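Can't paste images in this forum, so I'm doing it all in text. The chain is below; anyone willing to post the predicted structure tokens underneath?
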Amino acid sequence: MFTSFSTALSALNATSTAIDVVGNNLANLNTPGFKLSEVCFNDLVTQSLGAGLGETQVGFGVGQPLTIRQFTQGAIQTTGGVLDGAIAGDGFFVVQDGAGQTLYTRAGNFQTDKDGNLLTVEGASVLGWTTIDPTTGQVDTNGPIGKIVVPVGSLQPATPTSQFSLDLNLNAGAAADTTSDFSTPITVYDSLGTAHVLTVNFEKTGANTWSYQVTMPGDDVTAGTAGTPYDITGASGTLTFDSSGNLTDPASGSPVTFDITGLSDGAADMTGLTWNLYNSSGAGRITQFGQPSAPSASSQNGAPAAQLVHVGLADGGQMLAQYSNGNQVVVGQVAMASIRNPNTLIAQGQNNFLPSALTAAPSIGVPGTGGRGNIQGGSIEASTVDIAQEFTNLIVYQRDYEANAHVVTTADQLSQDTINLIH
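Text version of the structure:
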């Protein structure tokens, strides 16, 4: 009878711990990336009464409960935050605290400081790769990971135009005189990022034959006259079409190439400027059909200088810098760690986990590879706490506590009755 005191007290202690766990789960109902903990109870060794071989066994109560963190997938909620990222699948973001300790987290609500360091909301540095391969222009993920630093307030230099193309139709029914004249503009950029509007002029000169001349404003070049179009040297010639309206001369693989020299703004000469008359499959971009002369598309590969607008986390964990000219440049790649037995991790607070002695060595790599989950930009993984289940657990533990408290009072009453027998 008197062991019932310690048995019931062990239950009170274990149930109290379980209520603490439930309280912590409920407290983190809205914590991004939080993983709930489950309580696992275990009984203490029993004692055998009498001379038999265990026919009568009485336990010593319940041991200190264990908590197991369940790393199930949380719901992914769209936030629209440019630096938010949610992990869909297995894996962890790799971060480093102020003491240089490497930690792991599922919370992807990131931010940047004044120096462009990518940080968690608690101030830990997010790790990944930022070295750009000069050949491919992509992030080199073969080296060691480090702190991700994104450009802040940077100016992207101008990209001078080296090639352009025009998709258009020339009217096959036009007369071979000035009434057939047709022109279309295209904007190109020099080495300083200054825009220059080139005008390509066409005139039918005979059956299936058109002449062309590329001009630009006269005040754009030192050799020109303000207010008068300037004929660019070497940018004139003849286009020939077959009876089906397809371009035959110049032939495929023979683009029109010319130079623009003596720019008034002091930019470098635009040498070797290429006008591509054919697409990648060898089809002519210019046709001659019985339809009005009209352009359908144009493109060029130059861009003016541009200011950084913002940096965002894209799907797959890429850090993209967007500039005012519309260009997007990859400036970093967020790393992801795969851990085979994540339930052995030790919670460090602030949504971070630290490997324990039982934790398998984390495998660092690119999201979406090697069994790692992927990253969805503009989203956050919600807490896995189920409020209905936690309230149910809370009621059960409350009744458990009350029942064992009643055991204590009953054992106390019996003890008093036993003592009174002496009197």
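Residues 3-71+398-420 form one domain. The mean pLDDT is 92.
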